[in-house]
């Protein structure tokens, strides 16, 4: 057993464990949390803040506007389905997500499932009545989402105030926040993955007018 495991705070005086050893123990316990983009361990310098994480993520998301929808697709070359797109976009910034929307709903921190509670970069997850979660989009701010939609033909923005957008508002069942203060809030991939789930089905929102 490592010495750190023998040094709870209550036994500090008995064992003579240093604060540094205890810090390493805490680090081991928290090692399942990915701190992508956060400050380097052991330094007091703050994380870079010149470009907010949401701006970087949305910039990446926008680069793929017009990419075709492909069921099961997860790269720009083959096309994207909804969760393949979200996974790809966030992966470009060091945030590892599982493959399907039903797994992605377990990632990061829960946010109240109301548009007013969202920040740019949050995930919005959708399910039709009495059905499992089947679609995911990135909230772009200003009442818009960006996503890969089968009903929309591929990666696109949708305004939530439109008839089509209201379908998404009505069917939003969860929201998740993945980054804050330059850090990823996503747990280790093995903690949120559920192997064997099928790819997300096409969404059934009204087609764009």
Short description:
The chain is of the alpha+beta class and 209 residues long. 25% of the residues lie in helices and 19% in strands.
What attributes does this structure have?
single chain, 209 residues, endopeptidase fold (from Nostoc punctiforme), 6-stranded antiparallel beta sheet, 7 helices
SSE layout:
Blueprint: H1 12-15, H2 19-29, H3 53-63, E1 74-75, E2 79-80, H4 82-91, H5 101-104, E3 109-111, E4 123-126, E5 135-141, E6 144-149, E7 154-159, H6 163-171, E8 172-177, E9 179-180, E10 183-184, H7 189-192
Antiparallel strand pairs: 1-2, 3-8, 4-5, 4-8, 5-6, 6-7, 9-10
Describe this structure in words.
- The chain is α+β, with helices and mostly antiparallel strands and 209 residues long.
- It has seven helices and ten strands.
- The strands form three sheets. A six-stranded antiparallel β-sheet has the order 3-8-4-5-6-7.
- β6 and β7 form a beta hairpin.
- α3 crosses α4.
- The longest helix has 11 residues, at 19-29.
- The relative contact order is 0.19.
Question: How many extended strands?
Answer: 10
Tell me, rounded to a whole number, the average pLDDT.
81
The largest beta-sheet arranges its strands as 3-8-4-5-6-7
- How far apart lie the N and C ends? 64 Å
**Main structural class:** alpha+beta
- Strand residues, percent: 15-25%
The DSSP helix count reads: 7
Order of helices and strands: HHHEEHHEEEEEHEEEH
């Amino acid at each position: 057993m490592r010495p750190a495991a023998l040094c709870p705070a209550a036994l500090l005086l008995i064992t003579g464990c240093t604060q540094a050893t205890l810090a390493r123990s805490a680090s081991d316990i928290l090692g399942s949390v990915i701190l992508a983009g956060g400050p380097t361990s052991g330094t007091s310098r703050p994380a870079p803040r010149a470009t907010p994480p949401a701006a970087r993520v949305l910039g990446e998301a926008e680069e793929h506007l017009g990419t075709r929808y492909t069921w099961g697709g997860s790269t720009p070359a083959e096309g994207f389905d909804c969760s393949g797109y979200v996974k790809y976009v966030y992966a470009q910034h060091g945030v590892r997500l599982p493959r399907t929307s039903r797994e992605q709903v377990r990632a990061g921190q829960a946010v109240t499932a109301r548009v007013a509670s969202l920040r740019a970069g949050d995930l919005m997850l959708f399910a039709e009545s009495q059905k499992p979660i089947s679609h995911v989009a990135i909230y772009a701010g200003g009442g818009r989402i960006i996503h890969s939609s089968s009903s929309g033909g591929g990666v696109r923005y949708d305004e939530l105030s439109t008839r089509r957008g209201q379908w998404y508002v009505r069917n939003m069942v969860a929201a998740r926040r993945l980054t804050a203060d330059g850090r990823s809030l996503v747990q280790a991939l093995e903690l949120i993955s559920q192997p064997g789930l099928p790819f997300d089905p096409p969404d059934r929102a009204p087609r764009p007018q």
